[in-house]
Design a protein that fits this description.
It comes from Methanoculleus bourgensis (strain ATCC 43281 / DSM 3045 / OCM 15 / MS2) (Methanogenium bourgense). The protein is built from 19 helices and ten strands.
């Protein structure tokens, strides 16, 4: 996600040092920590001392003659991949509780603890049963880059850029794997479908890193990627019992790999939930790569690529809805119609791709997202049908300000529809608005 790069950039502007934990055990990690602490202190003798525990080495650091926080500032100590320390010694959180309470909390120090394992960080570091609970002054789960930033990595036209997002999402490490001098499909073949490539095995490695029962989680994710979105259908296709599926879905949701959806107007106790993968890379990998590993392993990547190209349109239709929701949520699309509640709406066989409701103003946004090129007649037909479907959405029906929106690849005659009061946007507009979004953030 880029957390190490972000921390390294932060340390260029503030006094402090960075330490990357390893799985080698406590003694080895303390020795390595003392090395980087000694570099910061400009004292090569610091690491030559044998420190028995974390409290000893950190106390020696704080009391060193060269440890001098700037006036009004703090010294930053970064411990990256903290979960590695916990894996080798389950007492690590309680040890650092003691270090913080007895040493660091009294000093001008900012201690940053980070880790790639979401489950360990949320349970053993941030969880209410963790010894460190209540001591943090802030927390931040780093999220993927917003869609507009993809143009900083890849010089593609907007359609290929959207498809690149559908395959990779906004994770910087993945985007850097795609070479800007190669086409989208050349990159997919070389970086995702080639045996030995980073993105060919990344999803499976992530599963094994995060989960003890990786196989069951992969079975669930494959079924979700294939379109089985309810708990009952997941039980049926995976062969796992309801209790197990419920447990796995709860863990995946807590780790932000999936989201459970209800109609945007549903009450808090609504039970007929749908589950959806939210990470584009994992979704595409489980949909296209994982089911065809046998073919790829035997050198048939060209055949696999051909089948992906044949199946990419319906996949992009699904992912385009997620992208449009994110663009609306960030205020890039239709900022004048943003709402406090945003999501899909459905009732029996009727569905609206995106509904935004604003409790304060009483405004309602109804939006359809189509991964296709639309004639003027087709666009008008979709908007007319949208009006009819919106009448079935029970929310302040007698007193609401309704706006109707359409997003597609290309929309013929969109200017006429805009003059009639519709909110209409195609890839050309998304490119323009994305450029504006980037320019505003660059100052």
């Amino acid at each position: 996600m880029g957390k190490t790069a972000l921390l390294s950039r932060f340390l260029q502007a503030v006094p402090g040092f960075y330490f990357l934990a390893s799985e080698e055990g406590t003694a080895s990690n303390i020795r390595d920590f003392s090395h980087y602490a000694g570099e910061y202190l400009d004292d090569p003798d610091f690491e030559r001392i044998s420190y028995p525990d974390w409290q000893a080495v950190i106390t020696a650091l704080i009391r060193h003659r060269n440890f001098s926080p700037p006036s009004g500032g703090k010294v930053v100590i970064v411990i990256d991949e903290f979960p590695y320390l916990i894996a080798r010694d389950r007492a690590t959180p309680s040890l650092f509780q003691k270090v913080w309470d007895m040493v660091l909390s009294r000093e001008q120090v900012m201690l940053i603890i980070s880790g790639s394992s979401v489950s360990t960080m949320e349970t053993d570091v941030l969880g209410c049963r963790s010894p460190l609970y209540g001591r943090r002054t802030g927390q931040w789960q780093l999220e993927p880059l917003p869609y507009p930033y993809l143009r900083e990595f890849l010089p593609y036209d907007e359609e290929d850029l959207v498809m690149a997002w559908c395959m990779l999402g906004g994770i910087p490490a993945y985007l850097q794997m795609f070479r800007p001098d190669r086409s989208l499909w050349e990159n997919v073949e070389d970086q995702i479908l080639r045996k030995g490539a980073y993105l060919y095995s990344e999803a499976e490695l992530l599963m094994q890193y995060e989960f003890r029962e990786a196989g069951n989680y992969m079975t669930i994710l494959r079924a979700l990627a294939a379109g089985y979105t309810t708990q009952s259908s997941l039980c049926q296709v995976t062969g796992l019992d309801k209790g197990m599926v419920s447990k796995y879905l709860a863990v995946l949701s807590r780790m932000h790999l999936i989201k459970d959806e209800v109609p945007v107007t549903a009450h808090a106790g609504y039970r007929r939930r749908h589950y959806r993968l939210t990470d584009p890379y994992l979704t595409s990998w489980f949909r296209f790569v994982y089911p065809r590993r046998a073919e790829t392993e035997t050198g048939k990547s060209r055949e696999v690529l051909s089948s992906i190209r044949d199946e990419i349109a319906p996949y992009c239709r699904e992912m385009f809805e997620l992208l449009c929701e994110d663009l609306v949520r960030r205020g890039i699309l239709f900022p004048e119609a943003s709402g406090s509640r945003l999501g899909r709406w459905w009732q029996k066989e009727v569905e609206i791709d995106l509904v935004g409701l604003d409790e304060t103003s009483g405004s309602a946004l109804f939006c359809e997202c189509k991964w296709s090129t639309l004639t003027h007649r087709q666009a008008r037909g979709i908007l007319t049908a949208l009006r009819e479907k919106a009448a079935g959405v029970r929310w302040q029906n007698e007193d609401r300000n309704e706006r109707y929106a359409l997003v597609a690849k290309n929309i013929e005659g969109k200017e006429d529809l805009i003059r009639e009061g519709y909110l209409v946007c195609d890839l050309q507009d998304i490119a323009r608005l994305s450029g504006k979004y980037l320019a505003e953030r660059k100052g």
